[in-house]
Amino acid sequence: MRRQWLLPARIPAALAASILVGALVACGPAPEPEDPISVPGGKESVAEPTRGDWLVLHSLSDPESLNPLTSNDAGASSVLGWIFPSLVALEPESLELEPVIAREHPEVSEDKLRYTYRLRDDVTFSDGTPLTAEDVLFTIKATLHPKVNAPHARNYFESVREASVLDPHTIRFDLREPYFRNDLTLGSISPLPRHYYDPEGLLEGIRVSDLIDWENLDAESSERARRFAKQFNQDFLRNPMGPGAFVLRDPENDWVTGERITLYHRDDFWAPGDSHAGDAWVDRIVYRIINDRAAALVSFKGGDLDLLSLTPIQHRRQTDNERFKRRAGKNVGVRGGTIYIGWNQTNPILKDREVRRALSHLVDKRNIIDKVLLGLGRPIEGPIFPKRPEYNQELPPYVFDPERARAILEEAGWADTDGDGIRDKLIGGERVPLRIEILSNTGNDQRRDIGLAVIDEFKRAGIDASFRGIDWSIFLDKVKNFNYDAVILGWTGSGAVPPDMYQIWHSSQAVPGGSNFVNFRNDEADRLLEEYRISFDAAHRKELYDRFQQILYEEQPYTFLYTPETPTAWDRRFQGVIWNEVTGPDLNRWWVPTGSQKHKPSS
Model pTM greater than 0.70? Predict the structure, then answer.
């Protein structure tokens, strides 16, 4: 990954279904000692970096879109991260927030209700237009606009009351209430070019507070704001423009659906050679879209990919040989991801907590980790990375117990009344069979194997269960609109910063397009999530989240499976290969000596 951008407006725990994303505690085995060109463990390469060559990455699917606010999948987040740096970012080694587009750390009022950012005066967008505070103001307006399709982004900025431009390079945010992560959240804003995303100036004269108080917006402003939202939601799906070091020059030719996305380095980038600002040493970033992991490994072995997340079988059996080791280095890291089965509670069957509890008792996590992952995973009981202090270590394993599951179903009234081998129950005057279809995205063999394993156990318990893999874009549409029974999915995350589970679990986020797509609703959980956000006492936040995780444990809206240990292979022609323990590979610092470059400037 690049700098650890903190972009809740774009990548809050984005749906994980594509390439290497969201690396967490990732210090696995270092490259082999005989490695002639790569130096692990945070050390710099001996030679001076040289610009040139391409970095070719793998993606299982096309991004849903490249709209910087409305997209919410990991593939989009990875691509957009090269195009949209933020006001501040985590320095991957120190894990401290450092200015990027901001000139310095914000000035914060004593009551933590006012943050003032002063911006660099040399930042430009990829068309050469200078970035100003007006662009930051426009970005927060678009984010908080209730008609912009970005509910996953808005929730992080709910404390914002108003934003004001003080001068061309200074912006102030006034808040309704403190939020313990405001330094991260406000600093995560990735400025959008106002002149590009709002060429008619439709949001001019409309304040942030006007958009928040949408129902009281005057008719003329409301009409303009609606026009803006319609255009923004529809017109910028494939053509992003930002201030980053890389640009999608020609969307029609540089994004070939199902094949590749090509980003080009900006010769006029405003921070040349500054990896913290997002510059990298390669001329191009190319995402090759290969929706089959076996085919992706063939491409890697053939030299058509430079970085590849390996499946356990690929790591243990297909790449554990001297020939591959000469071609590639490997690293095994514990990623901050959470893999789970989500139960859609708009479904009358799965709305019943007892059914969800029974289903969780039918999932053998240890067997899945051993057989599907070949041991490359750690079982979990909640949504927080187990090495974070906020993880509730008191939760016992949710045991695999088919007999207990059957007893729970019997007690809940699910019995095979007609002798067809499938349990049923009278719901709303109609006899309903206990039928569940589990969905996931095609091309992900691990999730397919998980699905097949669990439906076998379900069938043995009298449940009519099936698994189906579907195309990522269709899959996302079903998830966003509650049009499914159950899904196997994953959230990315970062152990570098304290978690905030509001986006995924608060009932306000259980809306079409929101991240609470299992429709989990619990008044106590809502209260805990709200109180957690405004507490600056880490011990108190720990108490709140211990109870919150206990509620999830009791309710089982997800069956939490594991956090994966992800093997990753990389091409040995790269130098400067550094794998930071928490933030993963720092791709901005990877480079290729001139004599080893495969792709010349004219190629």
Answer: yes
